[in-house]
Structures are given as C-alpha cells and as structure tokens.
C-alpha cells in the first residue's frame, strides 16, 4: 500500500443535496494502466476532479507518492508529476500546435531551447510533428485529442489522467491511441476514464467500476467482464 503512486481513503464529494462520490478507497500502482468505468453519473469525473485538484473533497484524503496532497492546488499537483488531459490542458484553437504544447511545457521547463526540444519530442510521440505550425483549431477532432495528450506528455508526468480520450475518434485513430498508451506506460502510470470496452479490455491492467459514487468492483478486465454486479449496473437491473 505504501508503495502506491496514488491512494485515496474515504474520498467523498457532496454537491448540495447530492452525494456524488462516497468513501472511495483507491490505489494505483506505479507503472499501472487503470481504467475507471461506470454508468453515466456514477461519479467518475468528480473522483478524477478531486484527484487532480479541480474539485475540493467533502471528506477523505489523497496521497500522491506517499505525501498528502488533499489540500494542494491543481498547479502544484502538476509540478509533482500529475497531468490531466482534459481541463488543465485544453487546446487553444487560435494558437499553433507547437505553441499549445509549449504553453504546457513551460509549466515545467524554462529556456526556449529546452522548451522547443520537449515540444518536438512530445509532438513526435503522438505523431503530430508535421502539423506543428498549423493552427490547433484547424486540426481534425482526432488530432486535437492527440494534441491534448502531447500537452500532457510534455509535462513528463508520473501519472497521466485521461478523461474519455477515445471519445469521437475513428477506429483507425483508436488503434493509434492504443499504440501510444503502450509506449507512454513505460514512463507513467495512466488513469483512464473510458467508455469503450474494447479499449479497456486491451489496455488496462486493472479496472475500477464506480456506481452511484461507490466502488462496485475492481479487478482485471476479464474479472470485471464476468462480474454479475457490473453487468447488472450497466443493464440498469442492479
Ligand atoms: N458541479 C456539480 N454540481 C452539482 N452536481 C454535480 C456537479 N458535478 C457533478 N455533479 C453530479 O454528480 C454526479 C456524478 O457526476 P460525474 O460527472 O462525476 O459522473 P460521471 O461518472 O463522470 O458521468 P459521465 O459518464 O456521464 O461523465 C451526477 O449526478 C452529477 O449530476
């Protein structure tokens, strides 16, 4: 347990009258790819929002690399090695692809030469090197999603959190995404909110299922696939 990269204990969030997340104990190991799944409204985005510092918990604690980060603002979690693709690094449509990634790189690096080198490397990893000077808003949707991932990668995270990264991607783009994650996992643990079960089955080491704000099940993709309570939750018969 002490070796976990990320741990939550009793993590809870109440919005007015609504209990969105209830006493979640969650452990993510170094180098692990974890999928977080669950029906709409299960609390996935809220849980991830608490982990990355966008949502203040009502109760509970969050440890990152053994240190209590529960009260730390989002930008200081980024500096400690957490990157979150969706809200923190949203694409600026009017800026070039390169400049978007450079903005993210400057959270970590100073000096134009070092920033440029990191940007080039991140763009190469997601396969966008040849689009570097293009306005980000002109990229296809799939390429904008890859750009978001490049913006996460350039921060050299130890934990990369991706909120529905394959949503809206073509089959070919999803294949590319899977290959990219297999590469990225060599350097970072990955927490993936993902609705596409093929992607979950192929990429995740373990799967955590949220339902009504609590952990319904946790296990390997095969275990989760066979879990009756999970099947019931998805069919709405639970
Ligand atoms: N800022 C907020 N204020 C009030 N209620 C909220 C807020 N954010 C989320 N909720 C509620 O909390 C519950 C959990 O929402 P959340 O977005 O975390 O679920 P989710 O599992 O990510 O769903 P989806 O798969 O649809 O994105 C929902 O009932 C939602 O309406």
From TrEMBL:
SMART domains linked to this entry: AAA
CDD domains in UniProt: ABC_Mj1267_LivG_branched
GO molecular function per UniProt: ATP binding; ATP hydrolysis activity
ABC transporter domain: residues covered: 6-237
Taxonomic superkingdom: Bacteria
Keyword Nucleotide-binding (UniProt): yes
Gene Ontology cellular component list: plasma membrane
Record keyword Chloroplast present: no
InterPro entries, per the entry: AAA+_ATPase, ABC_AA/LPS_Transport, ABC_transporter-like_ATP-bd, BCA_ABC_TP_C, P-loop_NTPase
SUPFAM superfamilies: P-loop containing nucleoside triphosphate hydrolases
Keyword tags: ATP-binding, Nucleotide-binding, Transport
Protein name, per record: Amino acid/amide ABC transporter ATP-binding protein 1, HAAT family
Organism: Roseovarius litoreus
């Amino acid at each position: 347990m002490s070796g976990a990269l990320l741990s939550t204990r009793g993590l809870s969030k109440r919005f007015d009258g609504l209990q969105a997340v209830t006493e979640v104990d969650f452990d993510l190991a170094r180098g692990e790819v974890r999928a977080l799944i669950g029906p709409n409204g299960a609390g996935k985005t809220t849980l991830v929002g608490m982990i990355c510092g966008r949502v203040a918990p009502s109760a509970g604690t969050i440890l990152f690399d053994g240190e209590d980060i529960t009260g730390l603002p989002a930008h200081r979690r980024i500096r400690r090695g957490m990157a979150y693709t969706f809200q923190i690094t949203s694409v600026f449509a009017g800026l070039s692809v390169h400049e978007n990634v450079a903005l993210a790189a400057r959270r970590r690096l100073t000096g134009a030469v070092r920033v440029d080198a990191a940007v080039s490397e991140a763009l190469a990893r997601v396969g966008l090197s040849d689009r570097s000077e293009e306005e980000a808003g002109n990229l296809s949707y799939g390429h904008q999603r890859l750009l978001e991932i490049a913006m996460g990668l350039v921060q050299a995270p130890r934990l990369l959190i991706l909120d529905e990264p394959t949503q809206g991607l073509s089959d070919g783009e999803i294949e590319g995404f899977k290959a990219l994650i297999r590469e990225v996992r060599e350097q970072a643990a990955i927490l993936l909110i993902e609705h596409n079960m093929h992607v979950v089955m192929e990429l995740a080491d373990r799967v955590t299922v949220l339902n009504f704000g609590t952990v319904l099940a946790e296990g390997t993709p095969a275990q989760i696939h066979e879990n009756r309570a999970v099947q019931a939750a998805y069919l709405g018969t639970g």
